[in-house]
């Protein structure tokens, strides 16, 4: 096996982004596993792996990764939104609502605001 180095991890990260974009989330997870094993503090790699787990319908691993990202970056609106979507898909609606609202409060993007139920006309 070839020696792993920081440049290899960057290449693997970029390749994982491409695999996820090409709808191969399991391939992305496989590449990211080695990156995260060497760099467990890398929040970007963890966020990408969480997205890949979600895309592969591996909701529990996705939830755990999104929660870890939020422990490190509690003001990451995207991570709140993605965690909320993950919780919603796994039937945890009350927890999902809380994270949808946090995402919208941190970043008032239209999709976050809609998901949180803010600004809807009655």
From TrEMBL:
Pfam family, one: TPR_19
Gene3D superfamilies listed in its UniProt record: Tetratricopeptide repeat domain
SUPFAM superfamilies noted in UniProt: TPR-like (SSF48452)
Protein name from the UniProt record: Tetratricopeptide repeat protein
InterPro entries in alphabetical order: TPR-like_helical_dom_sf (IPR011990)
């Amino acid at each position: 096996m070839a020696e792993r180095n920081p440049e290899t991890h960057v290449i693997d990260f970029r390749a994982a982004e491409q695999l996820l974009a090409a709808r191969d989330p399991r391939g992305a997870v496989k590449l990211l596993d080695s990156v995260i094993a060497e760099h467990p503090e890398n929040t970007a790699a963890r966020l990408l792996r969480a997205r890949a787990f979600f895309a592969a319908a591996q909701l529990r691993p996705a939830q755990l990764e999104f929660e870890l990202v939020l422990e490190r970056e509690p003001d990451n609106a995207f991570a709140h939104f993605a965690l909320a979507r993950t919780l919603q898909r796994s039937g945890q609606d009350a927890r999902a609502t809380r994270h949808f609202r946090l995402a919208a409060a941190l970043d008032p993007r239209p999709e976050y605001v809609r998901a949180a139920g803010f600004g809807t006309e009655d």
